[in-house]
Amino acid sequence: MSAPVLYIVIPCYNEQAVLPITAPLFLGKLRQLSDQGKIAETSRILFVNDGSRDNTWQIIRDLAAQDGHFLGIAQSRNRGHQNAVLAGLMEAKDRCDITISIDCDGQDDINAMDAMVDEYLTGSEVVYGVRDNRDSDSFFKRTTAQGFYKFLSAMGAEVVYNHADYRLISARVLRELANFREVNLFLRGLVPLVGFKSSSVYYTRSERLAGESHYPLGKMLALAINGITSLSVKPLRFITGLGIAVALLSFLGVLWAVVTALCGHAVAGWASTTSIVCFISGVQLISLGILGEYVGKIYLEVKQRPRYIISERTWEDR
């Protein structure tokens, strides 16, 4: 069996500070794996420029001009991390046997790639990179991140705990993933849905080598909401259950009011009525918000807009 062709897919958004530092590290790892005979010499590093506003794309073009192991594609505009990863994977699936997606910031341990390739060679089609601890995170970041995964699981989204988007996927799995046409992408939940034999590799995450994080709390919450509403209808069932519970309480309240009136007792009225109206109004508004989130998802899906548009490729410059 010949060594597999590996494409390392790296999404980039405003990474001019860290890219010159991490690019040589990725190249060194690619050459090491090739020298060990684990991957083919035709393996490549594919950068995906996600509409960066800084000098990221020019750096990628310069890297591609200096070394043939570097390739780059540019999206026509910023479309988000998940779309950038998907664009790279879909571009690579017909050129390679396996892909490894990893962020550009150098936080994920690139040495875990050795174990990922080993897992593939022993039969795994998908290998998840999973953090073994969060000691490098602040207390707030650690707490919110762990709550993020637990909340997703509680809401019915199938995810691998403490796994982000550092993973190996075979071309065979990618061809099946291409059949998933969702516009609202949440790859951490979609990849497990594809199936096939999978395994996990554990590693320790480091501090970002340079630049600033592009995933603050707001984006993490948006990602969680997108993941839940894209992969689960559990919130809708929760609304149904809550509606039944409120209806029962309201029915009991009506019985109490009728019985009190028949007994000739005056109903205090104002405080209890106000409390009930406010409670039911709040429940209705929350329910409408959740329903609206799903309706919005349907609205985006039925238009079937492209999930990414590639405007440039470095190999077209040659």
The CATH architecture category of the largest domain equals Alpha-Beta Complex
Helix content: 40-55%
Mean pLDDT: 80
* Residue windows where pLDDT falls under 50 for at least 5 positions: none
Can you tell me the CATH topology of the largest domain? Spore Coat Polysaccharide Biosynthesis Protein SpsA, Chain A
CATH class of the largest domain: Alpha Beta
- Helix-and-strand structural type: alpha/beta
Describe this structure in words.
- The chain has an eight-stranded mixed beta sheet with strand order 7-5-6-4-1-2-3-8, with helices on both faces.
- It starts with 5 loop residues before the first strand and ends in a 5-residue tail after the last strand.
- Helix 2 links the parallel strand 2 (44-49) and strand 3 (70-75).
- It folds into two domains: 6-232 and 305-316, Spore Coat Polysaccharide Biosynthesis Protein SpsA, Chain A, CATH 3.90.550; 234-303.
- The chain is elongated.
- The chain has helices at 19-35, 56-66, 81-92, 112-121, 139-154, 171-177, 187-194, 217-231, 234-262, 270-303, and strands at residues 6-12, 44-49, 70-75, 98-101, 126-131, 163-170, 198-203, 310-313.
- It has ten helices and eight strands.
- Helix 5 runs parallel beside helix 8 (217-231) and helix 9 (234-262) runs antiparallel to helix 10 (270-303).
- The mean pLDDT is 80.
- By secondary structure, the chain is an alpha/beta fold.
